[in-house]
Design goal:
The chain is 54% helix and 10% strand. By secondary structure, it is α/β, with parallel strands linked by helices. The chain has one domain. It has a 7-stranded mixed sheet with strand order 3-2-1-4-6-5-7, sandwiched between helices. Helix 3 links the parallel strand 2 and strand 3. The chain is globular and about 80 Å long. About 1% of the residues have low confidence.
Length: 514
Amino acid sequence: MDWTALGEQFLIVVYTFALVMVSIYGLHRYILMYLYYRHRHKKPNKAGRFEQLPTVTIQLPMYNEQFVARRIIEQACKIDYPRDKLQIQVLDDSTDGTTEIAADAVERARQQGFDIELIHRDNRRGYKAGALENGLKTAKGEFIAIFDADFVPPPDIIKKCIDYFTDPKVCVVQTRWEHINRNDSLLTQSQAIYLDGHFVIEHVARNRSGRFMCFNGTAGIWRKSAIIDSGGWQHDTLTEDMDLSYRAQLRGWKFVFLPEVATPAELPPEMNAFKAQQFRWTKGGAQTAMKVLPRVLLSKVPLKAKIEALFQLTCPSIHFYVLILISLLFPIMHIRASNAAVYSPWRMTFDLMVFLLATISANVFYIASQYELFRDWRSILKYLPFLMGLGVGICLSNTKALLEALLGKKSEFVRTPKFGAGTENYHLLRKSPKEIAAPKKKTRRYILPILEFAFGIYLAICSVICLLNPHYFLAAPFMIIFAIGFFYVSILTFHGLLATKKQPTKPVEAKQRS
């Protein structure tokens, strides 16, 4: 038995499988764009208007948010809604100076006549889901508006959303995220484009075509009775919002998405914060898939909803497929060079075309979202190579998140650090992340960025091989982009880790601009 040939065949099968899977998810983006353009004009209608406005409870979950705690509390008090119909809960699990800052802001608001309370927990049982669940016990409102600490809800947000609940089957009204620090850096600009694609294209396509969509954890309003009917906030996944969304829709509740109502928020301006957020979303998404996907597929919901749920819930797996493709690049090129019978020019052309199908679909997807938002598609063109590089550069971290979920490894809900975008001290704080407490586990913090840097070197070598070999020359630009992506992610990760060595001795509060 020729073990070498057998091994080569095995690598070819694995590589082809990963390539096909990436392409399938690429095709799915085209389907979402088709659904968007077909259904975008089906705007949700209000069933009526409330003659008497219902009571609304605003929940502000926070954990160590010393830079933004005061701002979100003050902003919640600026919301235009009758005070006798409004309750504000500050759900604080903090272990730093945030509690003192929040307590002072709450006391000031109480003196102004607001029904506001600070609910501080000494433990983080259930993390954010646990805090929301705990606050629900004393929530007076029929409806629950949730805003994370880095959001700046506009004053008219509740009035723009509340009348959609005159339909008794509506359980959630979700608004679109806008970005305070969109133009702050290449990293924040890229994140803004990623999220714009999610909110502008994905949410509209799913919601208005009769498929399931997800509450995004913040910047939306829930019907309290729907939360209870769907089993409440549960904390066995890191994406409690996605979990509850699917449970609610399986119970027959309806979602309303309002892309025209925007709620500004801060994007992570630092690489480690961005990776922590993506890690949590990826791992939580995989956990939710294992929990609810069997229920969806066995339910009586329409087939189109099941198929879309399958794509949405298994989407985190694409990071694993991308990592396989990257890891096998050099062996596959060696097989191609040494065995022309196995890899003919036609086969190489097929591989390249399939790969282009996946990458071009993502580019078209994000171009469409920017055009729909700003009527401008040209300005995004310069970001497309970096979007591709960054997406590949974080695949190692996200694959780790995916594997942890599949293996059932429990982990802490790691909050995304906030730096107070839009405040006086924002740029100072962003450039000095040592003010943010460093992660507790220090011994293994450098392993992942070292591996990411190694992948950058590996892809750089593959780039040189592609440039020197006419058969692979067309793949060279992609190899270079991916190498740059890994170098960028790893170097900024190292920079952030080195900057967090010093921990703060005093709570630092960002001052809001007047």
